[in-house]
Amino acid sequence: MAAVLRRVGSGAADGVTTAEVAAATGLPRSTAQRVLAALAEEGFVDRDARRGRWYLGPELFLLGSVAAERYDVTSTARDILRSLAATTGESAFFSARRGDETVCLAGAEGSFPLRSHVLHEGIRFPLGVASAGLAILAYLPVPDAEDYVRSRAGELTAAYGGQHERAALSRRVAATRKRGYAVNPGLVVPGSWGVGAVVFDRAGAPAWALSLTGVESRFNGDRTARLGTLLLEAAHALTRRIAHRG
């Protein structure tokens, strides 16, 4: 059921079909339909009968409101996202680590009319894919990061292409540690670039990331470094805020 809920959640405002849930989870379509129906009875998902699409349900909102008191720092990050978007003209996003994935929690659109559409609230990527996940992966303890790359590179390559092979991913992890921020040079969607910087929790673990995304022409040469510097400053400021919460 958890995998089904995650897939429904990743559909954001557009929702998902039963077939999409089945494909993402590996369940037969009939089984996916039964699971969705059971979740709907409890209010965890909701179905638009006219469009035939599933959405997260009201019960999750209620549970999430309770959990947010302990876990959510999105409200703490929103003004930083808005500032990044206003300063750079690019779209800014805040993502959280959830196990071996990142999930996008919030975004702020920039003023530049051409935008990357890779990220949106609710979308998930494995660690090492897209700039937020690469930033978090790079700041895991070195043995943990190396184990992840070794065990997951084949799966990432199959899903996202040859630039996610073990050697290439290891080089990007090392480069991220060296410069302090991650760069995704159009590896998820050609022409759609991103930079990401890690945000640490109160224990010093890489728990979240800020990222800026846009079209390739806006991320070439020295501008990428300038965006990376701005992002690092914002990530450090957010880390300090989180450390002093409560």
Automatic annotation (TrEMBL):
Species name: Actinoplanes xinjiangensis
What the entry lists under Pfam families is as follows:
HTH_IclR (PF09339), IclR_C (PF01614)
| SUPFAM superfamilies the UniProt entry points to | GAF domain-like, Winged helix' DNA-binding domain
Q: Which GO terms describe its biological process?
A: negative regulation of DNA-templated transcription
> Which UniProt keywords are listed?
DNA-binding, Transcription, Transcription regulation
Q: What's a single GO MF annotation on this record?
A: DNA-binding transcription factor activity
Cite the HTH iclR-type domain residue spans from the record.
1-58
Q: What is this protein called?
A: IclR family transcriptional regulator
| Superkingdom of the source species | Bacteria
The UniProt record lists the IclR-ED domain at 59-244
